[in-house]
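Question: Send over one sample?
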Amino acid sequence: MRTIKGPGIFIAQFVSDTPPFNALGTIAQWAAALGYKALQLPTGPGSFVDLEQAASSQTYCDEIRGILAEHGLQIAELSTHLQGQLVAVHPAYDQLFDGFAPPSLRGRRTDRTEWACRQLELAAQASRRLGLSTHVTFSGALAWPYLYPWPQRPAGLIDAAFTELARRWRPILDVFDAAGVDLAYEIHPGEDLHDGVSFERFLEAVGGHARANILYDPSHFLLQQLDYLGFIDHYHERIRAFHVKDAEFRPTGRCGVYGGYQNWVDRPGRFRSPGDGQVDFKAIFSKLAAYDYPGWAVLEWECALKHPEDGAREGAPFIRDHIIRVTPRAFDDFAASARDGASIRKTLGLDD
């Protein structure tokens, strides 16, 4: 067993034009003062990380690491959530997701997809130069509009969607393999990889690729009413990243899982700051420690009620206090007795 690393914080929800959130150095100083040990860094347009430079320049990567090191911080992972989403977009969502692409690519579906795939390939090289072992992203979605089986889906529709999703991702996974970096998909509603069954379908379609792994976020499972602890038992060997994000689900006589088209604050299922929801984080940290989870525990702040800076301030001690410093020995070692093979056979009554 090993002790989980943390606390880390995903800064995507904090980056803005307002100090200290408008520069990597100042946001690093802010995070370190709150007690964080690592940042999960978004990439691409509008972020602090230029993937073109990071993929080609060791000097640029060393500068990024140096800025964080000045404040005692590391990089947990790079994120391409927005670019990963654009690897596969159903036409129904074209306009909604076009804003994730550079302005020059908006309305150009094929070019947008090619750009997104290239961004992922650059992220693999950038992660390697930064000395990272895991990268986090979204899978994108072709089948999501057909989640509910009405109207009746044509035979083969879902198979065709996953075949195409795998065709797009397999070359990217191979690039990550060559770079020695795991690709961890956040299992997330709105993505074709949104639960264990859909992840298994994708994994089979990419031939069980060793680099196809999981970013575990229990909040998305609680809102689906999926057993988020059982998920760890099933898929712990593929879990390479961990978002500490809470949620609550309080159905009423008027509304349930689907939310009734309401805004987040009014939905029965909504995200909360860690400790304010219903997720059993003590059990999660225990399971991940027992299964020798190798990565970081990273706060992702998304709450329908609480101010983000309050969530960040509370998140560092919340994660720190849940991390289990694993024991190097069994608790009953003091009572152990040395036995050789003959003594063991005698104890079992095998020499009579």
User: Anything to note?
Assistant: The mean pLDDT is 96. The longest helix spans residues 157-179. The first strand starts at residue 5 and ends at 10.
